Amino acid sequence: MTKKLRHAFISTFIPEPSFTVGLLPKRILHLHRLLFFAVALVLALAVTPSARLEVNSAKAEKSSTKADKSATRESRFTMLDGARIHYVNYGKGSEALVLIHGWTCNLDNWRDQAPDFAKRNRVIVIDLPGHGQSDKPQITYSMDLFARAVDAVLRDARVKRAVLVGHSMGTPIARQFYRKYPEKTLAIVIVDGPLRPFGDKAMMDRLIAGFRGPNYQEVVTKMFAGMRGPNLSAEAQDRIKASALNTPQHVLVSAMEGMVDASIWGQDKINLPVLAIMAKNPFFGPDLEQLYKSIAPRLDFQMWDGVGHFIMMEKPKQFNEVVLAFLDKNKLLKK
After folding, report:
1. pLDDT at residue 231 in the model
2. Residue ranges of the alpha helices (H) in 101-259?
3. Please, which residues bridge with residue 166 across strands?
4. Percent with pLDDT over 90 in the chain
5. Architecture in CATH of 2-329
6. 17: Cβ–Cβ under 8 A, 6 or more apart, which residues?
7. For the chain, which residues make up each domain, given as ranges?
8. pLDDT category, 70, cuts 50, 70, 90?
9. In 3-state terms, what secondary structure has residue 97?
10. How far apart are CA 129 and CA 143, in angstroms?
11. CA–CA separation, 278 vs 309, rounded Å?
12. CA 189, CA 98: separation in Å to the nearest integer?
């Protein structure tokens, strides 16, 4: 896994001197692995033609519908600031488990979780603004916007309180939601996501420059080719790739800028039950658990070996069992 990460990042960024000067390979790897807790991304090495991407997306939706047939699945839309937000609802109740995807992904990433979780309690899966079937206007895609979008969905679904599960970028979104709506937040589940900033502004500006260029799709694709784990199926890789490459450039750039906004990385506490499921990475350093506990004192921390960034897609059964055990342990949501 480490060799794959090193190759992917070095091959992506070193050939472009305009935004790599001064970055050491280890630093880049550490930076991007942390960054894409906050990001869920593509996993192949070449840019796919748009026509084929549409076919892949259609296949993913068809396959998702088939996978969800065991639960009542309702596709809905609500509005925020004049734009539509798409979400899928399973079940009823005033409390729900809310699944939040990462950067350039969509709600299909949770296809192996939603029907399973819905056997126990209400589940809501969201297409964040700019992603999936939600509208993609030319606006600022900040973590605050995404948090307000989650709230708009909960209000539309008449959900009063929720457990938020955030993969990658979904983690700072869940944290921002908690800051804005603490009375609506029961707990947070971190899925390979960050609670600390990625680096200084100059370093991040060089990183984001790669996404602003005409070859941004290739940059994105190569950078994440090495982030897949050994158990991620080819079919899952195709779904992630199709979603990422169908995300408009203005969305992915703005959302990335939102993730490096210094204002979202305060040391304010998360005074709720928190479960963190992280993919083992030598670049984290030995103090990651303690760092997370300094922000989330009621933390249940797990570091999984032999998985990549998309933990829930690689080991869905094990992932689901851990999340459900966390809910039971903390007596969260009604069965």
Report:
1. 92
2. 114-117, 143-157, 170-180, 201-212, 216-225, 234-245, 249-259
3. 100, 190
4. 68
5. 3-Layer(aba) Sandwich (3.40)
6. none
7. 2-329
8. low
9. strand
10. 11
11. 8
12. 10
